[in-house]
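Lab meeting prep.
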Amino acid sequence: MNAWLHDTGILALGMLVGALNTLGGGGSSILYPVLIFMGFSPHQAVGTARPAFLTQGLFGAVAYARRGRILWPFALWMGLAALAGAFIGAAVGLALPAGTFKKVIAVVVALVSLSVLLPKPASEEGNQPDLSLSLNLLLFFFLGMYSGFIQTGLGFLILIVLAGLNRLDIHTSNGIKAVVIMLAGIPSLLMYAAGGYVLWRPSLILAAGTAAGAYLTGYFSVRWPVRTVKGIISAMAVLMAVRLWFWS
């Protein structure tokens, strides 16, 4: 593929993912399959996407911190627990053969895409977690393992724990989520980069596109109902997951 067309495709993909995530969540479910269809190996697809996830978490954390919506030091402890787990998850992902990893990605993408249709966890506008610190640390350690392994749908799972189980209000939950995604993304990025699976040029273009898509979508009020957007995301991702399973 022509280098200019390839870079343009990566930028457009990043903008689409950022836009869909801003509209209703789940945009990352289409990211890995499309990268693999574009010629990336499964490990390269996961590794190359890591800077975009890390950037999203960083800018999200800064934005929520400026608005005083991050619960310190709880957010930091959960982020560090997820960071520790991410080392294990990334190691497992890197150890899997490419063919097996591709099929795991297909299954996870399909499941996460369907979960996008579920309602968001209920919130009772609390400002302190309901669960004990030790139980939360354990839960976020496992969430970090999942983050290091594949990442897709991580934000949804974090909200289940924060807004659902801990009954924190949604703004505080999103602030903590941003910190967790940022910190959990560090070991994953380092390990995939050390393995040579982060292709930096497309990775940086993807990160720029994701940021641009999220900003533009947030700036211009898109009037589609969120439920409709979620349905489109799920349908697209499930179809790509099925195609990815049989892709050789």
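Slide two material, second protein:
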Amino acid sequence: MLEIATYVLYLGISLAVTLWVGNTLYRNGRVFLLDAFSGNEQMADSVNQLLRVGFYLVNIGFIGLFLNTGSVPDTAGGMVRMLSWQIGAVLLVLGGMHFFNMKNIAGMRSRAMRRHDEQAPAVQASAPANLWKSAQG
């Protein structure tokens, strides 16, 4: 009975934390993605949804694989130790996934800023010539 209670607690806590983190990243990551995609809402929302699905797949897969750590608790203390080990590992994976996603988003933003900076001088350089042509006639 203690073994089943441990599994239920582990799954409940791990899945709840995963869903909470995934939804938090989804809601708050939109701003960064909009910036990275120069305000293109459709692209930002699409990438944000794909990131969320990938986040859930990796983390829920890890939670499932990590369910059986090979030991069965025989006391309440053993149950707490097992849960702390399992949930701690899940939290580390969630944190790692968060930093991985943030690194990728920062890279997308950096590339978008470089493209914007490369295009800006060309637009500025052609502006005076166009003004000169329109002033002449």
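Talking points for slide two:
Helices lie at 2-36, 41-65, 76-136.
The chain has a mean pLDDT of 83.
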